Amino acid sequence: MGMTTPPRTLAEALRARDDESLAALLHARPDLLTPVPNDITQLATRAGTRASVIRALEHLDRFALQTAEALAVAPDPAPYETLLGLLTGDGHDDGAHRDDTDGAITDALPAALDTLREQALVWGEDDRLRLVRTARELLAPSPQRPSPTGLGPTVAEATAGMSPGRLQEILTAAGLPATHDPVSAVASLTGLFTDRTAMAELLDSAPAEALSVLDRLVWGPPYGEVTPNPAPPVRWLRDRGLLLPVSARTVVLPREAALHLRAGRAHRVPEPLPPVLDVLAERDPQAVDGAAAGQALLAVTTVEELLKGWNGGGPATLRAGGIGVRDLKRTAVALDVPEPVAAFWTELAHAAGLVASDGAADERYAPTPAYDEWAELPAEERWASLATAWLAATRTSGLVGGQDAKGRVMSVLGPGLDRSAAPEVRHRVLALLAALEPGTVPTPESLLARLRWERPLRSASAAAPGADASGPYASAGDTADLRSRIALWTLSESELLGITGRGALAAHTRALLDSGPAEAAARLAPLIPEPLDHVLLQADLTAVAPGPLERPLAEMLSVLADIESKGGATVYRFTPGSVRRALDAGQSAADLHAFLAAHSRTPVPQPLSYLIDDVARRHGHLRIGAASSYVRCDDEAVLNEILADRRAAGLRLRRLAPTVLAAQVDPASLLEGLREMGYAPAAESAEGDVLITRAGAHRTPPRTPPAPVPEGPPVPDATLLGAAIRAIRAGDAAATVARKDPDHGSADSPAPPGALPRTSAAETLATVQAAAMTGTVLWIGYVNADGAASQHVIAPVKVEGGFVTAYDHTADGVRTYPLHRITGVAELADDATP
To answer: What are the φ and ψ backbone dihedral angles of 114, each rounded to 5 degrees?
Structure first.
């Protein structure tokens, strides 16, 4: 540490650290950098604030947290041996537990202590370990908040305010000599409870029922209720101080007595080692990669199918945001998946920036321009972009259908789905899978146990933005449950997305985690089959695509036929409606025959040819335009038939001419109504030409993907850390460094904290001008336009026009200061120059 005397404060301990150690602290606790502290003292003060300490405690693993909890109930300061004894016990318990864990605790404790020191939660040498005061307040027991160790207050704390006479009665009942004052009485009782031999003799004389009472309190909670006239076993314990009164009806087991009963251990089950992942199954790695690749291809085609369905404009946007329940059901039916899975694909497309709200008056969701670019990429690159977006997304589709804090139901694409812990949990789950041998599938239970060990304590602020974080244990149960649910969702979503195959991590996912999306796409490409340029036509008016199709073929086939089933092979069915859809899109019967003949590996079945010719013969026989709308047909008998049909009553038709009928509905409704009656009309333009109706390509304006909600301040990079440390060091030098007296040139002691140098205006100007010529570094006091005072270490470069331009070591940059705002200057001592 570079210190000759032990540090007396956290600020002194931090000041003695080297730059590498300070960088590790700021990297582990980035909230300390917002904004950059002026000096080490301010850094230490900020590191001890409640919000910052809570955030640091939340990121400890279970054993590091148990170490901090043990220090919270240990004397302050505590030597290393005392801390070790609180974690291992003193040998008064059965040996089985000690044999299993003591060696692991002894080996793991130095690393846990280093973690606490690095994060400035513990400071001091091993003979004087100190937990920062705020952490002790959060973790130590109190009547309002029991300790996580289950221990109660000390004898001194529990007897505060007790009458001297009652203390003497307790000493007498416990077989101790009387004392002359309450302080010595408390010390005598504490000494009894910490003397293993004397305490054992006292408990040997206790009634069996009294020992049963202690057994119920020893591991916590240490408080119990008593009646005004308690039973004899409770009276025996109360008379001897083994139960001390907290109120008229509440007693507590003092900490020293509980530790004796626990054989000195602060925790019932110390956990120095992370749980081992249990193996559920061992898969063939090649089979895993093949299954994951197949699912990856299905994921890409599912997202593409979803957005094709929204090509002309998707579901309407709810007033509160998101899409309605009915729209989600329609989407699930269209994709042939359960509603939660449809919600996942929709949120994934949104996270990848492929779908967004169009912002129009009748606001709807639609594909973005980025979708067209994405659709042109190879399948492996499309998958890599989806997987990358999923890893970083904080929106959690598993919450859809639940209620937010105000009782409102959360909808797909709506507000309230962000959980800042989601990316961390996803990455950690995949990292644990990556640490296993290829093809290994862990049990979900052991995976969750490992995650809980790594982050046992999380406040509600980590689960939901804006939640109250009143303490580290405020909502730990709810948050832990959420993190477990996110982990389980991660496993199921990984299987859907092709991240895993048959429960094991795929090779292309390992490449994604290690090297990025480009390498992942390269590893996935050989596993994805090449797109096919053909289908197999069958006599039952279906076509079978034995694999993925080339994009032009797939697009044309999706217009000409309806998808009947999906899987390894996609089955398309031809119907009159689907053929009419192709004719509406501008295709002729000859075009369709030629298309099928060119792309079928089997002869075109005669029933399919008849279907196309029959629909084409009737297509366009009727013409519809706007009158409000009209029907035109050269065959008067057809019009007479329509007028006589009762089903046409809703269209409110009337004859305008032998070959023309007028309607009171719009052209689209008239077109649909006649089709429902069994006719095959075609839309007509104002010039009398047949309108070609293709699926609209409605797009939103350019949109950026939704930004993930960060979990606290971002982790600083090396450049920011270096600049921040230089600024903190320079500010600390300005506040603490020795400086020369302007009159005598001798080095004085450091100024009191916050004191500014004081010199006259003439002295200030002369000193600054001399420093600019000689390159001397100065310490200045400065008051800005708002009246805020600060100290700076500067190297003056130029003095003119009432301003001094200098390199500011505190701000790590060139600054210009008005001379009239400088309160005074002083030269730094020769051995204190930055």
So the answer is: -60, -40
Q: How far is CA 233 from CA 162, 200, 201, 203, in A?
A: 22, 17, 17, 12
Q: With beta carbons less than 8 A apart as the criterion, state whether 266 and 151 touch.
A: yes
Task: Report which of 747, 760, 763 is spatially closest to residue 830, judged by C-alpha positions.
Answer: 747
Contacting residues for 253 by C-beta, under 8 A, at least 6 apart: 152, 214, 217, 218, 222, 224, 242, 243
Name residue 790's beta-bridge partners.
782
Backbone angles phi, psi at 96, to 5 degrees: -60, -50
Among 213, 400, 231, 431, smallest CA distance to 322 is for 400
Interval 77-98: pLDDT, tens: 999 999 999 999 875 444 444 5
Instruction: Characterize 36-51 residue by residue with b for buried, 16 or more Cβ atoms within 10 angstroms of its Cβ, and e for exposed.
Output: bbbbbbbbbebbbeee
N-to-C CA span, the chain: 20
Tokens at 352, concatenated: 């990848």
Are the C-beta atoms of residues 790 and 815 closer than 8 Å to each other?
Answer: no
Q: Are 580 and 560 spatial neighbours (Cβ–Cβ below 8 Å)?
A: no
Average pLDDT over residues 309-323: 88
Q: Are 572 and 305 in contact (CB under 8 A)?
A: no
Residue 219 CA neighbour count, 13 Å, CB half: 6
* pLDDT exceeds 60 at position 696: no
DSSP of 471-520 = STTSSHHHHHHHHHHHHHHHHHHHHHHTSEETTEE-HHHHHHHHH-HHHH
22 CB contacts (<8 Å, ≥6 apart)?
Answer: 14, 725, 728
- The CA radius of gyration of the chain, in Å to the nearest whole number, is 39
Q: What is the chain's length?
A: 834
Sign of CA dihedral 725, 731, 736, 741: positive
Helices (H) and strands (E) in the chain, counts: 33, 26
Identify whether the C-beta of residue 348 lies closer than 8 Å to the C-beta of residue 339: no
pLDDT average, residue stretch 654-659: 86
Beta carbons within 8 Å of 813's beta carbon, 6+ residues apart:
807
Q: What is the pLDDT of residues 252-302, one digit of tens each?
A: 999 999 999 999 999 999 999 999 999 999 999 999 999 999 999 999 999
Residues 747 and 55: beta-carbon distance below 8 Å:
no
**What's the token pair of residue 398?**
């598993």
Side-chain-side CA neighbours of residue 759 (13 Å)? 24
82-94 burial, b at 16+ Cβ within 10 Å, e below that, comes to: ebbbbbbbeeeee
Q: Which residues pair with 131 in a beta bridge?
A: 122
User: What 3-state class would DSSP assign to 98?
Assistant: helix
Contact 116, 13 (CB under 8 A): no
3-state secondary structure of 341: helix
CA distance 54 to 711: 14
Tokens of 723: 């600049």
Distance of CA 242 to the CA centre of its chain: 46
Query: Virtual CA dihedral for 205, 211, 214, 218, nearest 10 degrees?
Result: 100
Cα separation of 231 and 813, whole Å? 75
- Distance separating alpha carbons of residues 796 and 782, to the nearest angstrom: 14
Give CA–CA dist 675/624, Å, rounded: 12
DSSP secondary structure, 171-222, as one string: HHHTTPPP-SSHHHHHHHHHHHHH-HHHHHHHHHTS-HHHHHHHHHHTTS--
Which pLDDT tens digit goes with each residue over 770-812? 888 888 888 888 888 888 888 788 889 889 888 999 888 767 6
- Residues 534, 528 contacting (CB under 8 angstroms): no
> How confident is the prediction for the chain on average, in pLDDT?
86
